[in-house]
Amino acid sequence: MKKPIKQILKAFPIFVITYENNSMSSAIINKLIVKFDHSKIDDDFSIFQITTTEKYINRGAYILDRPDLDLKALSVAFDYGKSAFILFKKDYAKDKKEILDSLGDEKLSIRKLSSTDVKDYLLFRLFLYSLNNFSSENLNFNNLSGKLILYSPNWISKNRKSFKALDIDVDKDLAFNASATTFTSVSLIKDKKLLATSPKYLMDGKNYSLKRILSSDKDSHIFIRTTLGDRKTEISFLDLSPAKIKQSKAFYLYQTIDKLKASHSSYFNVSFDSKEIEETITETREKKVIDRVVSDFRFSIINVVDLDKDPNDYPIFKKLVDYLMDIVSPNAIKVSEAIDSKSYNIVFIHDAEYYKENNYPDPYKLFDRSNVIQCITKEDVGSKIDNDNKAIIKTCLKELVIKNDIINTHTISLDEWSNFGFDNDWTFGIESKDNQFFITIDKDGKFSFEHKTNDFSSFRRSDLNRLSFLLSRPESKSKTIISDNSGNVILISRTNLFTLPSMNIFDAKNIRSKEGRKAFLSGVTDINFYQNLDGVFYNVGLIGCGMNSSIPKASLLYKVETIEGQNIIKNLLKTMSVVFVKYNEFTVLPYPVKYLREYMNSFKL
């Protein structure tokens, strides 16, 4: 029978959160500060803007990538598809008629611009993309299809049939970023439609440069930008191991800026911005919650059901059962063919994409939502079950506890909410597909949900109607709204800004020591709070104490806007210093949002 986890947790003290005053420290962020010397740029360069009367330039980047055109342009950058900007050295600039004649599209128009006529981010892109002329033994830049593609010979697969790369770019807010991508040999692509519609590129095996090919080109080293299957291209944001630290996104972002400074320092100054850190949370609120959850499940029954039904996948299911018995207890695990309403249930199925592609009914959609069910998909755990079994099992058990809280106890049992010392209720709200969902938590951790599915209905509580109105505004879309019961309302939104390590980290030692983290990883680790003229922000980085060597993703900054009353996010930062939402990681939003999203998932939106 399902047993409340809270009975066990009450017997243990909560770990004390440590705050640090970081008034003198700052975090480097990926926003660029650029100051142009416009007169010198206009003296040495010519800039043209090509515009179409259609919705987008016909055949897009192809006409600008074509290797048979002798434009001799330094770079090409697109602006939302309707227009493109071309940068020439003055000595190689053609007149407007020559360019249009070369492009051969009568629906295009062209005008010559002064550098002051070009938005800062587009002007910077033109110089950024001009790095396509740079290559070295370990680094190569290519301006392809209006993008800057950076790659290293180290990223080419052993069979030379694919290679990873970084798409380096700057957005309209001058946020600098690197996105991992993959180029795959056309010899491996079976999808004829994909082959027919995708730009194709030829790699020069000597200097590893890429060029757009013509339909007449024939070569074994032809690639398109795609991955095989559902694989994601992964290049770590930062890896602190000596052998890999210079193979990370952070390193290449710095390298790109260094190359730009070396080649164009007389035309602009560029540097990364920074933010002063006002406060930091360094410790987790409770380090052993998951272990206690595992212990408590020994006194419950977990019903494990195989709805995959594929004999080829049965070995994965068998391993799942074996690991559950090993980590929890053989007496707590039973295997059956159906959901048991009186037990916790773990169901082995395929992911939604599998059922969609094969036109099979998805069993997940047929579940009775009043039962406590956690699904594990073959696609997610198939290749991970042996190496990550403890993480998979513990995460699964934690999800069962949350679902049981939502369905049965209506009280947070993973954590002792009352230890936060709140003297007020908190309400969290999100909107998805025009449906609004709210969770309200009292000072003892008891919670209730409310939702509505259209703008014509209303909530029983007047305060929720007010929050509903604020959440339905266009500027509130994709944001999380939070209020206390004292009239304070805030909105949290994810930004495209993230923190960077110090550029000195790539040649440093003892990086993961307390002194090393402070010197090189300020803002990259721990939970950091910022408050300045730009607004109120926070970011949730890697747990500093005992940190891993690999940091897969950058730590994004979240902006917190005050809608009514005072900004109350500082009071909630400690609700992110838990490791049970993300296994052994902080969570980026107050953890009641996790409960709210799980409640949302019970609806068929």
State the low-pLDDT regions, or none.
5-19
**Number of β-strand runs:** 29
Instruction: Assign the structural class, choosing from mainly alpha, mainly beta, alpha/beta, alpha+beta, or little secondary structure.
Output: alpha+beta
Query: What is the overall shape?
Result: globular
Characterize the main sheet. 12 strands, antiparallel
- How many angstroms does the end-to-end distance come to? 31 Å
Cα Rg: 27 Å
Strand content: 25-35%
Taken together, the total number of domains comes to: 3
The helix fraction, in percent, is 10-25%
| Helix run count | 15
Summarize model confidence as the mean pLDDT.
Answer: 87
Descriptive report:
By secondary structure, the chain is α+β, with helices and mostly antiparallel strands. The protein has three domains: 6-12 and 287-409, 3-Layer(aba) Sandwich (Rossmann fold); 35-241, no CATH class; 415-601, no CATH class. Helices cover 22% and strands 29% of the residues. It contains 15 helices and 29 strands. Strands 1, 2, 15, 16, 21, 22, 23, 24, 25, 26, 27 and 29 form a twelve-stranded antiparallel sheet that branches. A seven-stranded antiparallel sheet has the order 7-8-9-10-13-11-12. Strands 4-5-3-6 form a four-stranded antiparallel sheet, with helices on both faces. The radius of gyration is 27 Å and the shape is globular.
